[in-house]
Amino acid sequence: MIDAAPGAINVIPGAEVFSLDVRAPAAARSKAIKAITDAIHGIARKRGVAVRIETVYAAEGCDLSPKIMDALENAIAAHGLRPHRLPSARAMTPWR
Fold first, then answer.
1. Number of separate domains in the chain
2. I want to staple 88 with a disulfide (CB 3.0 to 4.6 A). Which of 14, 44, 64, 83 is the partner?
3. Residues 54, 56, 62: CA angle, nearest 5 degrees
4. What are the 10-residue block averages of pLDDT along the chain, 96 residues in total?
């Protein structure tokens, strides 16, 4: 999601709001989030703008049923596409 205010044509926005969904195993996710936030703060400092980073939602990952993952992967491949497995959020799956 990205929101550029005031959202008018040919106007440089005065404010930006956007969200990121960072999915990875816990250790890699923490490392990625730190790298992303460090980069954002560095860019803001360089450009002389204010930045505020807020975590809206965070959940530990868990594995989705291997049978379901295999079925989805096979269905995607059957359409000539290359499947890519992402870690699942525990809140999004009934398998615990």
1. 2
2. 64
3. 125
4. 84 87 82 94 96 87 80 92 71 37
